[in-house]
Design brief:
The chain is α/β, with parallel strands linked by helices. The chain has 19 helices and 21 strands.
Length: 565
């Protein structure tokens, strides 16, 4: 029989394996029915990026007990799958990330699984790389990406270095659910784990291997090292996260010597005290960087999120003002730079492919098609792009060139299976420097692409709906649009409704609805897999920026009026 939130709450209070400090935290909630409900109405679930939630005591919270249970289940699953498995663990700069990473390593070690642990914060994509480089059975990253400071998370990776896709995730979740009590979670101390060779520390050699691999994908290092790297000014902010050292090392090794770091945001800070949100998708996160950019006369400003898998870029427009590029714009620019360079050198493979998600702009796809490169769509989440990469690696059917998603995630090269803000920082800075050598800015190139392919404009709206009530509200919104689809929106006919819930175009089932309109625009409703949000994506294509801006505003207003009703 399923326990109620109150029953789970009382069970935690009576559990002898739970420490007194946690019980004191829970005892203080006595009588607070709403808070107890939110903390205990469910177990944290695997979504787009594994476990993610607010830190604190409770089954619906990130804490040593939910992390330990997840790790014990993962250990059981890995030991069933293979003999002598090994796991790599990394963490970001968030509060309690080092503790969760260390504790996970000791649980794995207690189950006879060799664990490779980074001694301090590292980028999520470096974890993906390390899993592949070390031939590990899997990986764990303790991170909540760009969520607010009160969040943390637990991402699980497979042997290919990619986040678990649904089939594997279901097996892992089943194994985790079979861990019925915290007394079943095994642990040994660090000294015992090290003594048995079950806990091994990664170091500088591993870091350099990653940096060398990233830099090997530079397209114009000779140009940068011939003097351009000295005159081209870069401002970089890691937003208190894991990108600080790896991005700087890669830029330096690639030939960028005129790099300025935002000092106030250089050091790790789990509270992200200088920003409202450590998210390079938001202009506010670049406030300090743009101030430094003016002082340093920066040609480009780059920011990475706490676990350094997302990259945002800021460039100057024709008036000399800084403009934050959207993820779609940065992606299109990098697709153009990469493919045009490869074609010019006669290195563009005949079976090349660009992989993007179903909510990513079609601009990059049109650019890729112009160069004769196939484009493949996946569901939202870079794990699906990684899954395609691994498939191509096995079959040889296609040569992966670039993968990206609108939410600021990019990858070129096959050394990892997750989005990598380190290589994206290098690639977009290199593109900007290359075009500067031709007397142009990235903004100029973007305008040229608009003139050639049409002015694409996208917009994202999200609604945060927390707790059990929020879950029900999101489900109600999706049911409403699924069961009562509109025939037209803002006087434009809806030509097609794509419902991904039963599985569509060979993709796994996902609770997503995409509406294709007669004028070529579209919008998409998707509950977030990692946050208590419903996201609504909008995309239009016009003949000018003004026309596109009007069109996307009207489409957004018409759709959100019904969503918010």
């Amino acid at each position: 029989m399923t326990q109620t939130a109150q029953e789970r709450y009382q069970a935690w209070l009576g559990d002898t394996s739970i420490d007194s400090a946690t019980k004191d935290e829970l005892s203080a909630l006595a009588g607070n029915v709403k808070e107890i409900e939110d903390r205990f109405y469910r177990d944290l679930e695997f979504g787009t990026g594994g476990l993610r939630g607010v830190m604190g005591a409770g089954t619906n919270r990130m804490n040593p007990y939910t992390v330990g249970k997840a790790t014990q289940g993962l250990a059981n699953w890995l030991n069933q799958k293979s003999a002598n498995p090994s796991v790599v663990i990394a963490h970001d700069s968030r509060n309690y990330s080092p503790e969760f990473a260390h504790d996970s390593a000791l649980v794995l070690a207690a189950n006879g699984i060799t664990t490779y642990l980074f001694p301090s914060l590292r980028p999520t994509p470096q974890l993906s790389f390390a899993v592949r480089a070390l031939g590990a059975a899997g990986g764990i990253v303790i991170t909540a990406s760009h969520n607010p400071p009160e969040y943390n998370g637990y991402k699980v990776y497979g042997s290919d270095g990619g986040q678990l896709v649904p089939a594997d995730a279901e097996q892992a979740i089943s194994a985790i659910q079979q861990v019925s009590g915290f007394d079943q979670v095994k642990r040994i101390c660090r000294e015992e784990a090290e003594g048995k060779g079950l806990l091994r520390w990664l170091g500088e050699e591993d870091d350099q291997h990653y940096v060398d691999t990233v830099v090997s994908h530079s397209l114009n290092s000779e140009l940068l090292k011939s003097g351009l790297g000295e005159s081209f000014s870069v401002v970089f902010t890691p937003l208190h996260g894991a990108g600080n050292m790896p991005v700087r090392h890669v830029l330096k090794q690639a030939g960028f010597s005129n790099v300025h770091i935002v000092a106030e945001q250089e050091q790790p800070d789990g509270y992200f005290s200088t920003v409202k949100s450590p998210n390079p998708e938001e202009r506010e996160a670049f406030t300090l960087a743009m101030k430094l950019g003016e002082e340093a006369q920066a040609d480009i400003i780059i920011g990475t999120d706490p676990d350094c898998d997302r990259m945002g870029a800021v460039v100057r427009n024709n008036e000399g003002s800084y403009v934050v590029l959207s993820g779609n714009q940065s992606g299109a620019l990098m697709v153009h730079y990469l493919l045009s360079t490869l074609k010019e050198r006669g290195q563009l493979p005949t079976n090349g492919v660009v992989v993007k998600t179903i909510v990513t702009s079609e601009m990059g796809a049109d650019i890729a098609s112009h160069y004769g490169v196939d484009v493949v769509n996946t569901l939202t989440g870079f794990k699906y792009i990684g899954e395609k990469m691994t498939s191509y690696e096995h079959t040889g059917e296609k040569t992966f060139l670039f993968g990206y998603e609108e939410s600021y995630g990019y990858l070129t090269g096959t050394y990892a299976r997750d989005k990598d803000a380190v290589i994206a920082s290098m690639l977009i800075a290199e593109a900007a420097a290359y075009y500067k050598s031709q007397g142009k800015t990235l903004y100029d190139i973007l305008q040229e692409l608009y003139a050639q392919f049409g002015t694409y404009l996208e917009h994202l709206e999200s609604r945060t709906l927390k707790g059990l009530d929020g879950v029900q509200q999101i489900a109600s919104i999706m049911d409403d649009w699924r069961n009562n689809p509109p025939s037209e929106v803002d006087c434009v006919k809806v030509e097609k409704v794509l419902d991904y819930a039963p599985g569509l175009d060979g993709l796994p089932p996902e609770n997503v609805l995409k509406f294709m309109l007669a004028d070529g625009s579209w919008f998409c409703l998707r509950p977030s897999g990692t946050e208590p949000k419903i996201k609504v994506y909008f995309a239009v294509r016009g003949s000018s920026q003004d026309e596109a801006a009007v069109a996307v505003k009207r489409l957004t207003q018409a759709v959100m009026k019904r969503v918010d009703n």
